[in-house]
Design a protein that fits this description.
Layout: E1 8-9, E2 12-20, E3 24-31, E4 36-43, H1 51-65, E5 75-81, E6 84-90, E7 94-96, H2 97-104, H3 109-128, E8 131-132, E9 141-144, E10 149-151, E11 158-159, H4 181-184, H5 191-207, H6 217-226, H7 232-235, H8 241-250, H9 262-270, H10 284-328, H11 332-335
Antiparallel strand pairs: 1-2, 2-3, 3-4, 4-6, 5-6, 7-9, 8-11, 9-10
Length: about 350
């Protein structure tokens, strides 16, 4: 799809590719009419001939266009590009939560609360319009440079009113690490599924790993249905108990046992002091420095132990030689055969 770069279509000058998924490419473009940068999602050429894919793509644009909220990436237009279509969206200059976690490994509670609260606000708004996102995960949570959080990719959002279950495996949409048990089983989805996914995301924000970090998707999906996640207390001892309870409640296997809404989660989150008094958090650069220091201390100690071992061995060997020499030292008589 590089052939679009440098072209101007319907007043949008395509600058570069900034993302690629299984269904579409995302371009950074310049809106000549309104003097601003935008992001344009263009359906992948290999599926652009599929009527079903085109319908789904257009449905994505319609779904997200209804959701005008500060914490949701806005859809601005729908344009025709040759035999394909493009969704013109708000361009967000920043990074995804997954990119932030790669840099920082894990987040302190204050930062976690700041990001999580905004994501919950965007989700709560979408839920109030009857939509469930179905693919909440760190890569779909974008953090603008000024700290504003935006939820991306409402393309697979589904209306609550659509009560038809996902009856076949091919209809199950989502990402294994963050999928709710009912989503995996192909059951009817409600906003409680997003609450489970945001619980998985919150878990990863403070530990650096999703609740079930296993070697293959099958084991991950099975664990979501059958297993209990490792307690957050096992990872770190500095988190507020109220936050741990919030995450645990969000990760309940049965949807009815999870918090009733994102609004409830926001209220619970707001009740937890956000003072940054949690000493165990270290940004990645500090973590690396601490690791290097620990390694250097370990190497120094190892050298000392090796030297002590060599010294002890030397002393033992020397003592044994002296003892043997004393035992074997000949007497005067043995030295002088003429002595009587």
């Amino acid at each position: 799809m590089n052939e679009l770069i440098g072209k101007t279509i319907d007043g949008f000058n395509f600058i570069s590719i900034i993302g690629e998924g299984g269904m579409a490419f995302v371009y950074k473009a310049y809106d000549q009419k309104l003097d601003r940068f935008v992001a344009i999602k263009v359906i992948h050429p290999r599926i652009s001939h599929s009527l079903i894919s085109l319908q789904r793509f257009k449905k994505e644009a319609r779904n997200q266009a209804k959701l005008l909220h500060p914490n949701i990436i806005a859809v601005l237009d729908l344009i025709k590009i040759s035999s394909s279509v493009g969704i013109v969206m708000e361009y967000v200059e920043g990074e995804s939560l997954s990119q932030l976690l790669k840099r920082c490994s894990r987040l302190d509670f204050a930062k976690t609360k700041e990001i999580l609260r905004q994501a919950l606000a965007g989700l709560n708004f979408a839920h109030s319009f009857g939509f469930v996102h179905r693919d909440i995960k760190p890569s779909n949570i974008i953090i603008r440079k000024d700290g504003v959080v935006k939820i991306a990719d409402f393309g697979i959002a589904k209306s609550f009113s659509d009560s038809r279950p996902n009856s076949t495996a091919s209809n199950i949409i989502g990402t294994a690490f963050y999928m709710s048990p009912e989503q995996i089983k192909g059951e009817h989805l409600s906003h409680h599924s997003d609450i489970y996914s945001i619980g998985c995301t919150a878990y990863e924000m403070v530990t650096g790993y999703p609740p079930f970090y296993l070697p293959n998707d099958f084991k991950v999906l099975q664990a979501h249905i059958m297993d209990v996640h490792a307690p957050l207390e096992n990872w770190r001892s500095d988190l507020p108990q109220a936050f741990i309870s919030l995450v645990n409640d969000s990760l309940q296997k049965q949807p009815r046992n999870r918090p009733k809404s994102c609004e409830v989660l926001i209220k619970r989150l707001d009740s937890i002091p956000s003072l940054n008094f949690y000493p165990n958090y270290l940004p990645q650069h500090e973590t690396k420095a601490a690791t290097r220091k620990a390694k250097s201390n370990y190497v120094f100690l190892k050298i000392i132990l090796i030297l002590l071992t060599i010294l002890i061995c030397f002393l033992v060997i020397k003592n044994v030689r002296i003892t043997n020499f004393e035992k074997e030292e000949p007497t005067n008589k043995q030295l002088n055969p003429f002595s009587r």
